[in-house]
Amino acid sequence: MSTQRSAKENDLRQRTYWLVRLRWLAAVAVALGTFVCTHVLRIPVQEAPLYAIAALLLLYNAAIFTLLKRFIETDRGGREVKGALDFQISADLVILTLLLHFSGGPENPLVFFFIFHMIIASILLSVWESYLQATLAVLLFGLLLLSESTGLIPHHCLKGFINHCRYEEGSYLCGVFVTFAITVYLVVYMASYVAVRLKRAEEAQKQANEQLREKDRIKDEYVAHLTHDIKGHLAAIQSCLGVAVTDSLSGPAAEFVHRAYSRTQKLTAFVRVLLRLTRLKLDGKLETEVFSVPEAVREAIEAVRSAAEQKSLRLECSIVQAAAASGNEISFKEAITNLLLNAIKYTPADGTISVRMERQAESVVLEISDTGIGVPPDEQARIFEEFYRASNARQMEREGDGLGLSLVKRVVELHGGTIGFSSQLGCGTTFRIVLPLVPSRDVLTPATVCSENPVSSESVQRKIVGGSGAKISGD
Hints:
Layout: H1 2-39, H2 47-73, H3 78-101, H4 113-124, H5 127-150, H6 170-246, H7 252-283, E1 289-292, H8 293-310, E2 314-319, E3 324-327, H9 329-345, E4 352-359, E5 363-370, H10 391-396, H11 404-414, E6 418-424, E7 428-436, E8 461-465, E9 470-474
Parallel strand pairs: 2-4
Antiparallel strand pairs: 1-3, 2-8, 4-5, 5-7, 6-7, 8-9
Helix pairs in contact: 1-2, 1-3, 2-3, 3-4, 3-5, 4-5, 4-6, 5-6, 6-7, 7-11, 8-9, 9-11
């Protein structure tokens, strides 16, 4: 309930600020319109009162803006903001009536701005409040007509814009008043009807989203409990098979035991990843500490080096020495390792995998590129979905769970970063991670990345690991 209340109060504040922004424009329009009528169109309007109304609008709007800021700073509830909104619309109607009086009365087309205000009131206020504002508009307009026609206040005729003034023609004024009143109430009725329908649809959509989030949470909890139980059973099975594998089995029995043990290992790894992803989604947080990003990347590269050598792949890296982020180093390292293993898996022999890192003002950019099979253009939008694998990836490698990239994306986002990619079918893929850094005073001791010899913090190292050995070069 508190969340819903705060959301409604925030929405009400946004509506009120929107009305304030419109009023700044209205004040400028009044001043500019007065100048154009007087000095360009040569229409004799009450220049001084109209400029005074423009100034009044500016001062009154500044006061409203200051009041709203004070409400927000003191954490006032929605009642005060709602009252300020009601007052603004009522005050605007009074100011519009004054503006109409000094610029020709009912003969001025500005009378249509009452309709505009009724639409705004129907959007921002409740139905009964909108009708109250409509009644106020009708009373103000009727009082203006009565006061000018009876001579209580002077009528300022727009000579040069109309042929003759009609403020003393009773039948004309009655017709104008009745038409105005009917139009105002009809506009409020139609606008309120549409606004209420839209608000109900919005509320229904919010409730549906809340229900979906709750169902998703229940599903994640179920998956977490289920995978945890499965993990325990698999561990027991794997232990038993591990003993059998070491025994001196021969013939078909040995082959079946080895195959079962291998499958159990893969299933255990799948369950472990699924459990980790589910817990990340449920918790939505990581145990954080300041860690060296280059050191984590270097360790990830070292972890996959042998896999790259087995496929005769070149592993290139160009990494800055000093950059620190706040987060969980183990999770981040696992994410980078996952990206590198994916690149190795889907890159043909004698290909190239490159890791490039550069430091920007407040972030570090990490790019992992390969010369692999790429991702089909029509499947790229789904690449981070859980359990999804591209069609060419399934053809090249039948085994896979489709959870790796989902886990990587989740980990990067929990570190406050973003991940994206670009890919060309048959030419390779580049993943780009942007990670926010901690202030320089928190940077850890610089790590020597991809180099066997320490260098200055401004330098960049490059290491190329080939299938038959290693070549090291420094830039």
